[in-house]
């Protein structure tokens, strides 16, 4: 099969690999029809993680079931399924509570929780930017989609990660109807947090970034764009909230947060959130932070430490939730919103490319080139 392989920093190639196959009786084998490039892939692409060269990338996957293991009961050959980026078992102590991003069964290292397809430090699972994908615990992990999803793949594929992740960020922030929320980052995840905030009837949605194309997408769904290359985002939020700060805040950038000139400050969005969220407000953090970042320009963060304004945070009585999204906890309900026409997450898709053009997609999306807001890949594998 063809697969997109990570070779080293800013080097990915489409190569021939042995076909993915059923390895355990509980596996499902999927012919991937749609798979996205994610901001999380970019941390790996840029060589800023422990990703091993030779591994297949891709954790935002959907496709057709072409084979099922002998212990699979529910999922059938021919089903169109969307796979949460989390690989989880469904029966461990964390999965039982819906915390599938912290599955205790699927990691391959001791005392670790959580696994994902094609991801650094998240288990041995190959990614789905390939013709075929092995899905462990297929009955648990496959979201079987309605027939209409065949024609609306760019909407439904967002259930694999970013739509649930944006929603999760607003859940971590405890966003309630009628409240004001400020979102840092208008990449795909920040835009999905904005979409989720509209679905939850937020009164006012403020979103901070410096890329006009991304901010324009946010404005299309009624958010107020704040361009931090032109104004202080903290001042702008305070101005929009009578000097009080937003009720809730969402971090959708992660450890490679930088100023508009491009200098990285891993604490920048967190501290901006503390300043722009009100006393007693809460903050959701879904942007990725890692435990060690030897290449960070910030000496503290090389050891994984962040100079966080804890004093101001404590003084304001704020609270914060963080981490990977438990996709399975949300994807069925969000699928219902897509099916009923209440959510159209594909509005951010700028490019649909065949898998062989994936390296081009990575290059432009990584540069945040104007107009490259979300790249969707279509493998064309046959057996
Ligand atoms: N928690 C999860 O389950 C989960 C799931 C998916 C993605 N993620 C993470 O979410 C983050 C965002 O993903 P994405 O796909 O949107 O990535 P992206 O890199 O395309 O978007 C990030 C955006 O943040 C902006 N930005 C950078 N510094 C900023 C700053 N100081 N203030 C405001 N905006 C700033 C960039 O201009 C960019 O538009 C990444 O860290 C990704 O790994 C987490
Ligand atoms: Zn992703
Ligand atoms: Zn589990």
Describe this structure in words.
The protein contains 13 helices and 15 strands. The protein is globular, with a radius of gyration of 20 Å. The N and C termini lie close together (9 Å). The chain has helices spanning 39-45, 93-96, 138-141, 153-156, 162-172, 188-199, 212-220, 233-240, 268-276, 299-302, 310-315, 331-339, 358-366, and strands at 2-8, 11-16, 28-36, 60-68, 80-83, 132-135, 143-144, 180-184, 204-209, 224-227, 246-251, 277-285, 319-322, 351-354, 375-378. It folds into two domains: 2-161 and 326-378, Medium-chain alcohol dehydrogenases, catalytic domain (Quinone Oxidoreductase, Chain A, domain 1), CATH 3.90.180; 163-322, NAD(P)-binding Rossmann-like Domain (Rossmann fold). It has 383 residues and is of the alpha/beta class. The longest helix is centred in the middle third of the chain and has 12 residues, at 188-199. Residues 38, 40, 59-60, 85, 161-162 line the site of one zinc ion (ZN).
Biggest beta sheet summary? 7 strands, mixed
Percent range for β-strand residues: 15-25%
**CATH homologous superfamily designation of the largest domain:** Medium-chain alcohol dehydrogenases, catalytic domain
Structural class: alpha/beta
Q: End-to-end span in angstroms?
A: 9 Å
Enumerate how many helices there are, as a single number.
13
**What is the number of strand segments?**
15
CATH class designation of the largest domain: Alpha Beta
Feature tags:
383 residues, alpha/beta, Quinone Oxidoreductase, Chain A, domain 1, Rossmann fold, 2 domains, 7-stranded mixed sheet, 6-stranded parallel sheet, 13 helices, 15 strands, 25% helix, globular, binds nicotinamide-adenine-dinucleotide, binds zinc ion
């Amino acid at each position: 099969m063809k697969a997109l392989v990570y070779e080293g920093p800013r080097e990915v190639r489409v190569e021939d690999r042995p076909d993915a196959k059923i390895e355990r009786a509980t596996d499902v084998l999927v012919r991937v029809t749609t798979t996205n490039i994610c901001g999380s892939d970019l941390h790996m692409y840029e060589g800023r993680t422990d990703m091993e060269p030779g591994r297949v990338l891709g954790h935002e996957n959907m496709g057709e079931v072409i084979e099922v293991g002998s212990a699979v009961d529910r999922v059938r050959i021919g089903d169109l399924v969307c796979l949460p980026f989390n690989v989880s078992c469904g029966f461990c102590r964390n999965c039982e509570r819906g915390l599938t991003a912290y599955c205790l069964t699927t990691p391959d290292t001791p005392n670790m929780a959580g696994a994902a397809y094609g991801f650094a430090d998240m288990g041995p699972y190959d990614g789905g930017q390939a013709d075929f994908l092995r899905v462990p615990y297929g009955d648990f992990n496959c979201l079987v989609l309605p027939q209409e999803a065949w024609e609306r793949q760019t909407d439904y594929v967002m259930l694999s990660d970013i739509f649930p992740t944006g929603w999760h960020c607003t859940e971590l922030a405890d966003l309630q109807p009628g409240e004001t929320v400020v979102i840092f980052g208008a990449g795909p995840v920040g835009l999905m947090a904005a979409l989720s905030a509209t679905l939850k009837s937020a009164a006012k949605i403020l979103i901070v970034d410096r890329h006009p194309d991304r901010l324009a997408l946010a404005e299309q769904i009624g958010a107020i764009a704040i361009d931090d290359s032109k104004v202080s985002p903290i001042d702008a939020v305070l101005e929009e909230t009578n000097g009080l700060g937003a009720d809730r805040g969402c971090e959708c950038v992660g450890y490679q947060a930088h100023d508009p000139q491009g200098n990285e400050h891993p604490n920048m969005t967190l501290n901006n959130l503390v300043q722009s969220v009100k006393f007693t407000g809460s903050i959701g953090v879904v942007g990725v932070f890692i435990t060690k970042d030897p290449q960070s320009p910030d000496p503290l963060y090389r050891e994984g430490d962040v100079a966080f304004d804890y004093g101001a945070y404590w003084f304001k009585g704020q609270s914060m939730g963080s981490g990977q999204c438990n996709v399975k906890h949300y994807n069925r309900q969000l699928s219902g919103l897509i099916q009923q026409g209440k959510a159209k997450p594909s509005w951010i898709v700028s490019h649909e490319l065949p898998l062989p053009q994936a390296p081009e997609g990575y290059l432009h999306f990584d540069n945040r080139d104007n107009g490259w807001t979300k790249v969707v890949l279509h493998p064309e594998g046959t057996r």
